[in-house]
Amino acid sequence: MKRIFIIALALLVNIQLLCSQELAAVRENGKIGYIDKTGKFVISPSYKKANNFSDGVALVLDGKKWGYINPDGSWAIEPQFSKAKNYDSGVAMVLKNKKWIYIDKKGKELAYPTSEKLYPFTDGVAFIRSDKLVGLINAKGEQIVKPTYLVIKGFRNGYARCKDQNEKWGIIDTRGNIVVKPEYTSIGNYVNGVARAEKGEEIYGVVSNNTFNEVTGATKIWDFKATGKYTIAQKDEKIGFIDTNGKWVIEPQYIKAKSFKNGYAGVYDGNKWGFVDTNGKIVIDYKYDDVDYFNTQGLAPVKSEEWGFINTKGEIIIETKYGITAGSFAFLSNKTAEKGFIDGLARVKYNKKWGFLKPDGSLLGDKWYENAELFVKIK
Question: Which of 39, 42, 312, 333 could form a disulfide with 328 if both were Cys (CB 3.0 to 4.6 A apart)?
Fold first, then answer.
């Protein structure tokens, strides 16, 4: 009895470790495998094509068929599909016998509402189409929004832009609730309770709690970032910053700018890039060919011919000799790849190879790969 208990406990611990780990897909010798955050291969390079893990499994091409593997490399669903897409909320969309269908985690076909076209699940919902109108179903196959919209854009963090039959834009959530009433000429992504919007003809502002605040003189507004309380706006061909109430907090004065993140924003004077703080004070002088965002640890990518990393004092921490923008080799990847340090590692390119740098500039596992995806948490 005691022996059985110990074995069961060991299995439980192994499962918990697998479910808490982070893995990244990398290509070596023309094949894709998966490494952990120590740089060791958890799944050896075996696949010509493969996605990063999503919803606990990874989509891989074995021979001429697609299947799904577990974090230990075993088959969750053996290769049998001509085409397939990532799992989301326990549902995947696959092409079998020349027909797109939905399947559950055991590979069983799901009987979902009829749609003129099938769409993959994202954030637990999928589009359904009827008579050129779009609605939503959830992962249980329940119709949560009848096909009544002309357009529903992809969900981001639980919210999506939608256009009604009056050609007006609003915001809905994954339950189909209207978060922002469709009454705008255009609208941006809904972030932390606020979205940029255009009302009427060229009246630009921000909307929150279904209240529209016009931004005086604005001719364009960019989306808010999840980590920033300000966003970029244009006035008289100059760029400044506004807050979530639509008030100018830094007057338009820049040629280009990037949104605030973790207290700093990149700004361009027409020749070089530097950084300002939330008061509009230049804290890192204009001297870079390009810049990206500071992370929570105070490191930001900067470019002087190539990319390196600085701290908030403007000191070079890692010399500028890397590439940081990677093209995804995954079969289906609809997310923009983040750049810079993420959870302690930065994906970089050097001498046509990809690897992961630590904040001290050392290379994870002391190894470069033909290509590399970002690390993702196994759920």
Answer: 333
